[in-house]
Write a structure and sequence with these properties.
The chain has nine helices and eight strands. With 267 residues, it is α/β, with parallel strands linked by helices. Strand 5, helix 6 and strand 6 form a beta-alpha-beta unit. Helix 2 runs parallel beside helix 3.
């Protein structure tokens, strides 16, 4: 008999990305393979809130919500109390702290984070640039990039690039292979633009082995052997020293954590 599923409800009067990000970060801290996240966006009425809380009560789950309109937040609070459902207000306390500290009033307008403003178009442009610059497709784009990620295969270059792009940064990433001479352009760039990614040998072997399974290749392929992994990591570290760039070991880091370290160096 399988484990019982646990349900977390993510609710918002916008798209719910803020609450979902917090929930996903929390899930990673637990052995939560049996957790299901149900998202409810664009909530506009008290009836919708009531129905969600009733479902959460029935499934014995809890709710994480970002509701800007005070009447919807109050309905969520009352219904959660009535039905004994744990409901976490992600945005409310932060808004109240802003009010109390700076004596200001919120706009109480839903979806402000996703309005089509200049920052939105910058993010779209950054994502497009990053996709077109992925995995060394066009090394010449490194000149226009805000950040250039370097690393052996399977060191999280692509997901990290896309994450940073959604923050508005144009990212170029380049795979390092001992048999291929790195582009001379790398040595013309400012070292602070470059970030070298590395990983423990055992961790990288594990990831590459899983990749081989996924594509149906034999486990003994050179790609995932200890000798090959050690060779590639040594080659990468030697290049990082020559370039004078920062180096981040991503062995036990989530994408968000690595991105935070990169952006902290730029501030």
């Amino acid at each position: 008999m399988g484990e019982k599923l646990h349900t977390i409800f993510v609710c918002s009067d916008s798209v719910g990305e803020t609450a979902n990000t917090v929930v996903q970060a929390t899930i990673r801290q637990f052995n939560a393979s049996q957790v299901v996240v149900k998202r409810h966006g664009s909530i506009r009425t008290e009836d919708e809130v009531r129905a969600i809380v009733e479902e959460a009560s029935r499934l014995k789950g809890f709710i994480a919500y970002t509701l800007v309109l005070p009447e919807l937040r109050e309905m969520m609070r009352q219904e959660a109390i009535r039905l004994n459902v744990n409901a976490i207000d992600i945005m409310g306390p932060m808004m109240q702290a802003f009010i109390d500290t700076f004596k200001d009033s919120p706009k109480r307008k839903v979806g402000l984070l996703y309005q089509l403003d200049e920052q939105y178009y910058q993010r779209v442009e950054a994502v497009e640039f990053t996709v077109n610059s992925d995995d060394g497709k066009d090394p010449s784009t490194m000149k226009q990039a805000h950040i250039v990620l370097l690393g052996p295969s399977r060191t999280s270059k692509t997901p990290l690039s896309i994450y940073l792009a959604h923050k508005g940064f144009k990212v170029s990433n380049y795979p390092l292979v001992p048999e291929v001479k790195p582009p001379s352009l790398l040595f013309e760039l400012e070292p602070k633009k470059l970030v070298g990614l590395t990983m423990s040998v055992d961790k990288l072997i594990g990831i590459r082995t899983e990749r081989l399974k996924a594509v149906g290749l034999p486990f003994g392929a050179k790609y995932a052997t200890k000798e090959r992994v050690e060779e590639e990591l040594a080659f990468a570290m030697k290049l990082y020293r020559e370039l004078g760039c920062s180096v981040i070991d991503v062995s036990e880091k989530a994408i968000e954590e690595t991105a935070g370290l990169i952006l902290a160096e730029r501030s």
